[in-house]
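LOG
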Amino acid sequence: MNFTASRWDKIREDSDKWWAGELKRPLIQMRLNGADPGRDEPALPFHSFTSFYDLDVSAEAIVDRWDYNLSCCKFLGDSFPSVWPNFGAGVMAAMMGANLLNGDDTVWFNPKEEKEISDLSFEFDTNNVWFNRIKDIYKAGLERWEGLVQFDMTDLGGNLDILSSFRPSEKLLLDLYDFPDAVKRMTWEAHEKWFSYYGAFNSLLQPVNPGYTAWTPIFSTQPYYILQCDFCYMISPDMFDEFVKPELAAACKRLTNSFYHLDGPGQLAHLDSLLTIDELKGVQWIPGAGSPLCDQWPEVYRKIRDAGKLIQISADVSYFDTIVEQLGSAEGIVLMTSVNINQEAEACELLARYGV
């Protein structure tokens, strides 16, 4: 693997400065693909969704597949080797008893039995098959890499999104009108269980794991997560403030470093409200399929910057200069991108241009 343990010291140092607003440059995670792995490719094929592997495929075999993929990469700038056990967005629903259904290229969750919201309750189940599958994969990777590779947190999900796995979206939308107190009760139940699962996984990962990352691997030496509520694109700003924002703000207070996953134009109605959460450190803006590309939203990035928040961008490197020019500075941005190894010279030029 094209990475040494000593490089983690620099990653930690620069990450701490960036979160504190003291790094006078952006973080640029530049990964080059297509390097010579120096080892044979495993027979196990790669799946972007870890849940696609049958349960009889060993955790060690999955980790070996990931090890091969990482060996095909070169890590430049602020990048580092990381792997994400991807069991779908909101896998906490499956850990609390929902069905996990693998689709063609996605994962869905639905209830084993539909209940009225007044009859719902959530339990932290340490015997759940998905909870233990993820734990086994974490254990195998920690033993294999001994802290060289950063393990990302699995995508636990946003709490109303998790609830909607048990009350499919159209029913939960009606519940907001008909049973608002029950929705709030379940939101706070989900909140507590979320931190139970988050804590359980971190107690296993730390202190071997170099630090904290989520399904978007912004590195942090302190507890971090990228929070979300995809459900909220269907509700008004007033409903967002009533049903979503209080729990989000509470989660931000419990996490040292927090981001929000702003997914698609339908969520822009909630951006002003989100930016008033003092403890929210940053925003990841994803325009979404069919929308103009990242460099076509200067007003969104300016609003985030003017609120004193950090910005995460996942984009082709060709857009980055434009976004920086629109903002007037690259400070407070983390760019996550990858190119083929035959573009290493261009990648190095970009890194040098921004002092990385």
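LOG (cont.) second protein
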Amino acid sequence: MADQRRKTGVIGERLARRHLELAGYEILDQNFRTRHGELDLVAADDRGIVFCEVKTRVSGSGGPPSPFDSIGAGKRRRLRRMATEWLSHSDRARWPRGAGELRFDAIGIRLGPTGEVLELEHLENAF
């Protein structure tokens, strides 16, 4: 079960990365590990740095109906701690000019039973 969840997560992160790149974001980091967990994607747009949580669900597999339902208060606290660690360890020379805004986005992906994308929703300033 955990192996299938991991595969689903990897597929979702790949789709989310592609979505962001096509939307003009620059990917600064992916799967940044900290003692608090892992940041899925760190990207930049013309406004600033974006910490992006990716949640992928397979339709009909049970669990919360929306991928975003699993981003509760505890998860948001951990994401803020992970972002702080990323900021303290990253090379500021790689940050885009004028990166004044820090933002937390979420991308929710629903896949069909055979792996087709049913929905991809990108929430800017999700929390």
